[in-house]
Design goal:
Structural class: alpha+beta
Largest sheet: 5 strands, mixed
Helix content: 25-40%
Number of helices: 4
CATH architecture of one domain: Sandwich
CATH superfamily of one domain: Immunoglobulins
Number of strands: 12
CATH class of one domain: Mainly Beta
CATH topology of one domain: Immunoglobulin-like
Order of helices and strands: EEHHHEEEEEEEHEEE
Strand content: 25-35%
Shape: rod-shaped
Oligomer: single chain
Distance between the termini: 118 Å
Length: 205
Amino acid sequence: MAISEGYPPPNQRGLTRRGTSITRVSPRTREARAPIFPPPGVPARAFFGSRAAYAPPSRGRAASFRNFSFGVSLCIGVFLFTLNNGAVALGRGSQGPSFRTEPPRVVHFTNSTGAIVDCLAEGTPTPAITWTNQEGRVVEQVPGLREALVNGSLYFPPFPASQYNQQVHSITYMCRATSPAGTLLALPTQVREEVGNCCPNFFAD
């Protein structure tokens, strides 16, 4: 098996003969000078084997760092592309909240009957219902007097006359529907709970 002139044997890697002198050639220059196809009369197997024998050495840490940087940049690009598409998809599929059942403007009831004030909203994603007072503060549960139901309604159970609470039974409430697509406020609801003869001053009108 013969190798064409211009391809030194393995024991002279990196060297080339010019007349009677031997000159060192850089791997990059040798790679650039090497032909892509085998010269006439040289078997392909021998040609490609010789090219493999004289392949330039790896760049070591510099090449590894470049590959790592490229991989990190590619991952960041894919992440940003996916995040942007997800935001666009959310924007296209979202719908702001709207009231399916809005609470009435005024609610009258007695301590013996109690009452349920409905506030139902819909949208994409499904909005959350909260109740606030006239100052905008979220109202809390008061066991036995005021409860917020799972469906968003406000429940005033029947109670003894001695447990009447003006801050619960005679104030203005507001229903609020909130979702990532927006917030919607209902008109104020005035609650008036009448308790026998315990509190005549509150119902003189």
